[in-house]
């Protein structure tokens, strides 16, 4: 299995072009993403043919679960598709678990430097996120986690996000709180978790605990969810620079209710997965 190792702000992926997803993709994702026994990545991404769009993307987390969407991976997939000659368009249509999304490429010569992705409309209804409880939006609502109370705002971009505003993101014990919120019974499909510090109405700082992956250096859908939550809570405007441990994304919640995410994508090496069993 040939692959390309790519990343968006250090959120890293093993990207594989294939006609279909191989058997047992969950097992494959677990071993490929393992940082000691595999290549090491925050996700295994398949670039597949699509009947409805230019291509289809599917992503599997390091724990083997499949995610509906990934903001950093879709920028990588768009770059790969263009630079490999697979889709020679600067506005691509990519089929994902969150519907067909449109990355627009910003070129530097023949290379894709940055990508702006139309991430579609944020999903705010509790039942669609999904999160248990009465119908309506979840904005600044109390959630009790192992005896501690947090005010949360829930947003989905196909995949679920639980956003919590704090005064200092550096002080958050992400490794302790992340898994407790990810597995909180209020989230039937688990959740990604974003701790967000508002620096000013145009700038926020975010640390992410990703569902099925743990702490990562960046999360595109998480940055979009944090930006939407900031605006919904009256803490930010609708355009924000989102500082993540791996770098910065620019997020705009436009008047058409679509969220646009702009950021870089990089390819770092190509390889071949041999899939040897230990001692085999
Ligand atoms: N890193 C991603 C999100 C990847 C999927 C996530 N772990 C989930 O299970 O929803 C991003 O950049 O959006």
From TrEMBL:
InterPro entries: DAP_epimerase_AS, DAP_epimerase_DapF. The keyword Disulfide bond does not apply. The active site is at 70 (proton donor), 70, 219 (proton acceptor). Transmembrane segments: none annotated. The keyword Isomerase applies. The record marks 161, 210 as: Could be important to modulate the pK values of the two catalytic cysteine residues. GO terms for cellular component: cytosol. Pfam families: DAP_epimerase. Substrate binds at residues 11, 61, 71-72, 159, 192, 210-211, 220-221. It is an enzyme of class 5 (isomerase). It is found in: Cytoplasm. One of its GO terms (molecular function) is diaminopimelate epimerase activity. Homodimer. This is Diaminopimelate epimerase. It comes from Thermodesulfitimonas autotrophica.
């Amino acid at each position: 299995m040939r692959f390309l190792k790519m990343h968006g702000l250090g959120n890293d992926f093993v990207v594989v072009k294939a006609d279909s997803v191989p058997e047992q993709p969950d097992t494959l994702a677990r071993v490929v993403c393992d940082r000691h026994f595999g290549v090491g990545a925050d996700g295994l991404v398949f670039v597949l043919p699509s009947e409805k769009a230019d291509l289809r993307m599917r992503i599997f987390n390091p724990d083997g679960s499949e995610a509906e969407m990934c903001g950093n991976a879709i920028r990588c997939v768009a770059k790969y598709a263009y630079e490999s000659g697979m889709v020679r368009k600067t506005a691509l249509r990519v089929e994902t678990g969150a519907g067909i999304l449109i990355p627009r490429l910003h070129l530097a010569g023949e290379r894709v430097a940055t990508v702006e992705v139309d991430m579609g409309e944020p999903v705010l209804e509790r039942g669609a996120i999904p999160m248990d409880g009465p119908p309506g939006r979840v904005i600044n609502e109390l959630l009790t986690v192992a005896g501690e109370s947090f005010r949360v705002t829930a947003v989905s971009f196909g995949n679920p996000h639980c956003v919590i505003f704090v005064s200092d993101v550096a002080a958050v014990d992400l490794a302790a709180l992340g898994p407790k919120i990810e597995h909180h019974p209020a989230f039937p499909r688990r959740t990604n978790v974003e701790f967000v510090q508002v620096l000013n109405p145009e700038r926020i700082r975010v640390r992410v605990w990703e569902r099925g992956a743990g702490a990562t250096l960046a999360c595109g859908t998480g940055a979009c969810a944090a930006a939407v939550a900031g605006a919904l809570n009256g803490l930010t405007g609708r355009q924000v620079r989102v500082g993540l441990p791996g770098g910065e994304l620019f997020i705009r919640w436009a008047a058409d209710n679509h969220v646009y995410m702009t950021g870089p994508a990089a390819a770092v090496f190509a390889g071949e997965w041999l899939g040897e069993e230990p001692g085999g």
